[in-house]
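Supplementary Methods S3. Complex input for the uridine-5'-diphosphate-bound model.
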Amino acid sequence: MKYNRILLKLSGEALMGQQQYGIDAVRLMQYAEEIKTAAATGTQVAVVIGGGNIFRGVQAEAFGLDRVQGDYMGMLATVINSMALQSALEKLDVNTRLLSGVTIQRVCEPYIRRRALRHLEKGRVVIFGAGIGSPYFTTDSAASLRAIEIEADVVLKGTRVDGIYTADPEKDPTATRYPEITFDEVMEKNLNVMDMTAFTLCKENNLPIIVFDMNKPGNLQRLIEGETVGTRVSMNGSKAPKLEPKHSALQPSLTTPTEQA
Ligand code: UDP
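Predicted complex, serialized as structure tokens:
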């Protein structure tokens, strides 16, 4: 497999399927199947899922609510989606752990980096809920930050378009897709890949991002097997050197009994 460890980012909106709001059961199971197949390759899989299908902090002001309160509502929305995905994966006999950036003791584990690494090493699919646990951020930022913390080889941003285009392909029929692009080119051309905080985190830590169509069955597996799918954003574009695995196994002697659980 091309990658030892990936972080898959899914938007909350994608979970709506054809609906206007909430979670589409068929779409949810479809994503769970894709993740199961990816994890079965032996690649370690971490997932961050958004909450836009339920609530976004920016909506709060329209409701006359406080923005920070709205952001926490958004974070809780991501926990709801994460719980749904966890259940769907468990239905398919995939071992999972949900780690939350906001402590919700009865529902999921708190986010502790070493625990996340331990779970991944044991082959469990790790879902990071509640973003980074702070308002004024997005789940794209959470995806970048967690990916850097767990030393993932790549952020795979699953969307409903098959990559990054010169213009919006839904509006401009002449738009063409980049197979590879550099971080600098994305910024120069003002292309919309992730919000700037999330994007800068990846750029500064030399963490490649691949934007791909998650709704096309098999795409995730093809990516993991090293096929060119979607658009890859990296420091050097097509000249990027192949990344060596960076992470080493945690030394059991350094972990506490709870971390080994
Ligand atoms: N959010 C936040 N901090 C985080 C992650 C998320 O405050 O670290 C809130 C924010 O209000 C955001 C909402 O949670 O709008 C849902 O996440 P996001 O909009 O990223 O979901 P997506 O667009 O991927 O569905």
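The first helix runs from residue 25 to 40. The two ends are 27 Å apart (CA to CA).
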